[in-house]
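Handout, section B. The chain below has 77 residues.
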Amino acid sequence: MGLFLRQEDNRSQLQNRIAAELREKLAKQPDTEYKDPEPAFLDDHHQTRPAGMIIIILSAVLAIAIVLFALHAGGVI
């Protein structure tokens, strides 16, 4: 193991040939680019509806009403 780690950049002929083949394959390979998803892929997905935002707004209004009621009942307001 120690001899393997102390190797300089000495490569065998086999290693050089394999590295050259891999570089050649990489050069021949087309670049991968982003493609839009196919419509069939999106068939089972649903569109987001504004119901979530409405629930958040109603929850905030309810929380404010509860705080105001509590302050009014406590005699602060």
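Note. Helices lie at 2-5, 13-28, 51-73. Compare this with the example in section A.
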